[in-house]
Request: fold
Amino acid sequence: MENMQYGDELVREFLVFRGFTKTLQAFEAELSTDVGKGFQVEKILDLIFSVYIPQFQAEKLVGLLNFFKECFSSPAETLLFATLSKLEVSVLRYYIVHAIKSGRKDKVVELYGICGNDLIQRGQDWGPWFGIPYLRNPSLDPQFRVYFSKEWFDTLHLFMNNFLCEIFNGSHILLLGFFLVLFQ
Reply:
């Protein structure tokens, strides 16, 4: 966390040095709505599982997941990207399950409107998931039953926590190095 604060200070110093006061104001405003939450795992998990999913903010959820995928899209990070892509699938499936449990099938359809084309192109057995809003009781369907269990959610939450802890513990140094190279 100290490295992130140091990086923020470097950015501020650079913007002041160059006289970019409007950019500095925008930077300060962006920091107050920091989508990455300073890479604080608890805050990110809270944002995903206590705000975006329960409040059916599909667009923001997809945007956050895309933000993380962009962070790990370099060729050197292929394993992290692949793991994050699998996690993304599980988080989106949990969003769908939560919407179904809450009686909000309209929110499932809305999610498909936002990222349905991308999901179809990826494959990963998404075909049946597009029919889930039209099933009478998907929690009893053998294909979906596991996703409606508390154990599956607990496992997803734990895996997401462990993954984010692992990647962010090593990425602070990388981010600091990025800022140093950028502002030399």
Summary: Residues 172-184 have pLDDT under 50 and may be disordered. Residues 138 and 144 are 6 Å apart (CA to CA).
